[in-house]
Amino acid sequence: VLAIIVIALIVFFERAQRRLLIQYPKRQVGNRMFQGDTSHLPLKLNTSGVIPPIFASSLLLLPATIAGFSQTANMPAWASTILASLGHGQPLYMAFYAAMIVFFAFFYTAIVFNPKDTADQLKKHSGFIPGYRPGERTADYIDYVLTRITVIGAIYLVLVCLLPEFLISATGVPFYLGGTSLLIVVSVTLDTVAQIQGHLIAHQYEGLIKKSKLRGGKRTR
Predict the structure, then answer these.
(1) What is the mean pLDDT of each successive set of 10 residues along the chain, which is 221 residues long?
(2) Could you tell me how far CA 86 lies from the centroid of its own chain?
(3) 56 in helix, strand or coil?
(4) How crowded is residue 103: how many other Cβ atoms within 10 Å of its Cβ?
(5) Backbone angles phi, psi at 44, to 5 degrees
(6) At CB < 8 A and 24+ separation, what contacts does 136-143 make?
(7) Residues 6+ apart with CB under 8 A from 112
(8) How many of the other CB atoms lie within 10 Å of CB of 100?
(9) What 3-state class would DSSP assign to 2?
(10) How far apart are the first and last CA of the chain?
(11) CA angle, corner 48, sides to 42 and 53, nearest 5?
């Protein structure tokens, strides 16, 4: 039951978006006046995806990996104590894991999404966010919204990844899939389903276009 709840939580947060309203002014083409169009700029709640947990877990495994290549018997007492404290389920391990997930969530989001470039593209295509001047003001607003949703996304990642660790260490309840593994499986499944839906929609459009061409050919005859 708990696994189903965690999966439902992952699906909800992975599909959650914050949509910013984008407006386009009226434009005149020849003698015709076209009304201003509206669209949305979708900002994913978890923009960084599964990268932060993967990087965090890899860095935490690094000391144990280095210690595995060296002789454990000759290891200093303080090194053995630190290594034991960084074991799964230990408070120090959970604290470092949570901190690294939050850090990499902000770090990777800053790499993959640049508010200034987005604002410049909107300005280039005459789009604007109502109440904010195109350019720097728009970039600041997008960055403000992105920072807020990244905080929520980072907290969500920490909860999903640390919940199995808490359950295993506190209650001894077996949780066969770790939070990171479960997050990767659900994310890949959602991406696969989205790609399949895209191919099906494209195939339907191709069928409609072919039918319309056939009907047009028959009429010309």
Answers:
(1) 79 88 75 73 89 89 72 64 72 88 94 91 87 90 94 92 76 67 83 82 69 56 53
(2) 27
(3) helix
(4) 14
(5) -70, 140
(6) 139/115, 140/115, 142/20, 142/41, 142/43, 142/115, 142/118, 143/115
(7) 47, 48
(8) 20
(9) helix
(10) 64
(11) 150
Cα–Cα distance for residue pair 212/73, rounded to 1 Å: 78
* Token pair of 129 as six digits: 């966010």
CA distances from 92 to 52, 134, 168 (A): 18, 46, 16
pTM: 0.77
Least Cα distance to 7 among 204, 209, 177 occurs for 177
Q: Are 40 and 19 in contact (CB under 8 A)?
A: yes
DSSP character string of 5-47:
HHHHHHHHHHH-EEEEEEE---EEETTEEEPPPEEEEEEETTT
**In total, how many domains does the chain have?**
1
Q: What is the CATH number of the domain that holds 85?
A: 1.10.3370.10
- 150: domain range? 2-220
